[in-house]
Amino acid sequence: QVQLVESGGGSVQAGGSLRLSCGASGGALANYVLGWFRQAPGKEREFVAAILYGATSTAYADSVKGRFTISRNAAWNTVSLQMNSLKPEDPAVYYCAAKFRSTSNYAYWGQGTQVTVSS
Question: Quick one: 39 exposed, middle or buried, by C-beta within 10 A (0-12, 13-18, 19+)?
Fold first, then answer.
């Protein structure tokens, strides 16, 4: 059972930066894909970014490419999301999630952290 705990959310002005972190525990984490999703009020949850086991590959939603960077530490137990050039459309609750290797669905989710962007 993988446990995920996010931190680092907050409020920032448009154009500013925030760094989200997700502490992971409870599994052979090097075998998991770790991802970030977000959900804004009245909208469906959407994919933001993911980093594969082995950290050999990353993926990003088109809306955040070039602005957000996902990374994980060498111990495989922390995944971070560096968010730069934040826009008014970025505010949401951001969730960390994990899935085992090539399985389809993210089975493990954190509780979420709020990101607010003021113009």
Answer: middle
